[in-house]
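## Example pair
The file below holds two records. Each record gives the amino-acid sequence first, followed by its structure token line.
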Amino acid sequence: MPFVVIMEGDQPAENREDRKAGGIWLKRNKTALAATWKAVIGIEASAIKRAAIQVQMSLATKAFGTRLEIVASQKEALDLAETILKAKADGTDGWYPPRLS
């Protein structure tokens, strides 16, 4: 069943080895994950922080092949998740330009 991950608030910093191991695992499994994992949506109220995060996310999207978005509120995250999941269920690609709201 397709799913979207929504992350709110600051995430604990991973140490370098954990980050590296996680990145390798994601790269190795990105094809299998793509069948169900449709996006990661982060919530950040600060427009300045969202802009900075968006730059990092564009690099991660290329590396891992999973759509990454950043929005300002929980409502926006839930609305976007619903849009993405409905688009996938309808057979459309569900890709929209990154939002810098």
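Second record, same layout:
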Amino acid sequence: MPRRREVAKRVILPDPKYGDRVVAKLVNIIMFDGKKSTAERALYGALEIVSEKVNEEPVKILKKSLDNIKPMLEVKSRSWWFHLSGACRG
């Protein structure tokens, strides 16, 4: 939290090969020690292998797999007051 001014939110540009922001975000997550080209090479290679096996567009497969691993329902933890109120004591 800066003291002087609000930090501007950075805009993630779309991926140069597929033109999709999800792919660019995944490359940034995979990237280690600032080696973006290595992360791109690994991701592009994996997407090519999967697209050859499934015979679909790689971006469509990636988005479908991300939807499969996302939680369908958000689970919130109970507050400390719930435990003290006796509601969980039975």
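Notes on the second record: The first helix runs from residue 21 to 30. Helices lie at 21-30, 36-54, 58-69, 80-84.
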